Amino acid sequence: MAIEFNLPEAIATQQSAALMVAEHMMRPVSRHFDEHEHDIPWDFINGLWPVMRANPMFGAGESKPKNGDSGDKPKRTPIGNMTMIHLIEALSWGDAGIYLAAPGGGLGAAAIAAAGTTEQKQRFLARFRESEKPVWGSMAMTESQAGSDTSAIRTTAVRAGDEWVLNGEKIYCTAGRLSLEESAGLVVVWATIDPKAGRAGMRAFVVEAGTPGMKVAKLEHKLGIRASDTAAIVFTDCRIPLSNVLGSTEVVTAEQAAQPGGPKGFQGAMKTFDATRPAVAASALGITRATLELLHAKLLEAGYELRSDVPYHDMSAVERDFLDLEAQHRAAWLLTQKAAWLMDMGEPNTVEASVCKVKAGEAATLITQKAVEMLGPLGYSRELLIEKWMRDAKINDIFEGTGQINRLIIARRILGFSSRELK
After folding, report:
1. What is residue 66's predicted lDDT score, i.e. its pLDDT?
2. What is the residue range of 48's domain?
3. Buried/exposed code over 79-107 (b: 16+ C-beta within 10 A; e: otherwise)
4. What's the mean per-residue pLDDT of the chain?
5. Last residue of a domain, one of 110, 130, 150
6. Residues 191 and 251 in one domain
7. Fewer CB atoms inside 10 A, N or C side of the chain?
8. Region of poorest pLDDT, from 16-25, 88-97, 145-154
9. What's the rounded Cα separation, in Å, for the pair 82 and 8?
10. How many other C-beta atoms can be found within 10 angstroms of the C-beta atom of residue 60?
11. CB distance 396 to 344 below 8 Å
């Protein structure tokens, strides 16, 4: 049986539309939003929102039940995640920062889809399909003393009657301002219900925009993806309904949570990243493809040959470098597609999600830096977008789990070690 590498028509059609958006709505304003960091790309957002609402992978984090379905168990879209990574790659080819400002459920909806009950999914995710105005979802996990080490999170959630009371401060929340100040969105907040229990005490809580006691305290100034707002959010006696916690409130070990039918707390919500890490990888590879295309054009314009039909030792240094960069890009893209495909098939993909995220983040950083080097003064100048793409690319090696943390995840899974045994 032959292996088919052609895109299904359903994906190819949507990818073509995304590339048109990227070329005509994103690239022309890319430099403007890089230089005006906290401006919001409303033309792009308002133009894209009707499309995002109609696409369940972007809009709500899960498939929309079809007519006749009970709604209790949405039907799986066989190519949903594959479609998602192709669209993200295309939009990031246009501009990765503007792509991150796109409306939709984002990380918040992904967490609800991964760990929420049927009732929570229906209650919270409906807004991403039904709102006439753009709406966003975000996640608040990182703290000043708790980056990759989630066990060090100090934001607390204390039960008070039929409510949870949140106190603490979160930093580096992507789309935090858009979720909480510019729309009727939501943020999924990671807090501890038992500080002594470490990760076992961590839970994710859904906090809706407009909830008293929550405010956006600061917007970060960043190296890249500057069209995307990155916020610090403060919670001061912020009260939310008891039903807004994702997963069980029972403090359990990872081993107990892994048992069939076992209570899902921290481990359940962490499944969010199995879906979102391939998305981050796809965004990195959109930047990478843009870089390679422009680098290729400029090298040809300068009179360099770029042959692929001669022995490696007969190539020039420029040819060898360029082909090595292309190989890095293609390897990362194949790994990303595998991780997305496994999720579409309903198969575990934790290792593959981390592998593709590591490879794509590393490849994007390497390729954009090398492109700046190969183009010399032109690459370092602001005449081209390549220097911007180099700045945009680095974040993909950092957020959604740093390269180092994802390597630990891969090693633990392959070797069978727990987080306590392999740090």
Report:
1. 40
2. 9-130
3. bbbbbbbbbbbbbbbbbbbbbbbbbbbbb
4. 89
5. 130
6. yes
7. N
8. 145-154
9. 10
10. 27
11. no
Inside any domain, residue 49: yes
Cβ–Cβ under 8 Å, residues 110 and 275: yes
Query: Where among 73, 107, 130 does a domain terminate?
Result: 130
pLDDT of residue 412: 94
Question: Mean pLDDT across the stretch 155-159?
Answer: 97
pLDDT tens figures, 46-58: 999 998 887 655 5
Domains contained in the chain, number: 3
Q: What is the pLDDT of residue 54?
A: 74
Q: What is the CATH number of the domain that holds 342?
A: 1.20.140.10
**According to the model, what pLDDT value does residue 263 have?**
44
**Is 94 within 8 Å of 28 (Cβ atoms)?**
no
Sign of the C-alpha dihedral computed for residues 169, 173, 177 and 182 taken in this order: negative
pLDDT in tens, 160-203: 999 999 999 999 999 999 999 999 999 999 999 998 888 888 89
Residues 41, 227 contacting (CB under 8 angstroms): yes
What is the rounded average pLDDT of the residues 313-331? 95
pLDDT for residue 60 is more than 80: no
Q: Are 408 and 350 in contact (CB under 8 A)?
A: no
Same domain, 354 and 286: yes
pLDDT (0 to 100) of residue 272: 84
Do residues 363 and 405 share a domain? yes
Backbone angles phi, psi at 199, to 5 degrees: -60, -30
**HSE-CB for 173 with a 13 A CA cutoff:** 31
* Short-list 230, 247, 220, 218, CA closest to 157: 247
Active site positions, annotated: 400
Give 230-265 pLDDT, tens digit per residue: 999 999 999 999 999 997 777 655 555 455 444 455
